[in-house]
Design brief:
- A hairpin with a 2-residue loop joins β2 and β3.
- The protein has a three-stranded antiparallel sheet.
- It has helices at residues 3-24, 32-37, 44-52, 71-92, and strands at 29-30, 60-63, 66-70.
- The longest helix is centred in the N-terminal third of the chain and has 22 residues, at 3-24.
- With 93 residues, the protein is mostly helical.
- The relative contact order is 0.13.
- It has a domain at 26-89.
- Residues 1-24 are annotated as: Disordered.
- This is Prophage CP4-57 regulatory protein (AlpA).
- It comes from Bradyrhizobium erythrophlei.
- Residues 8-24 have a biased composition (Basic and acidic residues).
Amino acid sequence: MTSSSSKEISERESARRNRQSRQDKQLRILSYQDLKDKGIRYSRQWIIELIKAGKFPRSVKLGEASVGFIESEIDAWIESLIEQRDGEASNVR
């Protein structure tokens, strides 16, 4: 299996988990302010750059000049950062 196909499988699995998570709990859309309230203090422009790089959950267009973020996807992203940190910490010891 190539690295590219492994990544595609991983992305599909992640999307499936996100869909399931949205079905399991009430869907909530977060604004940029809500992201700040969750401790994500990035500027809008930096968030856009992270989205383009595939390093932050994609936004949902809500109107002509309005976007939001699905809370379960943001929560999963935060969890992945914690897992990454914990994995790196175990390698340091």
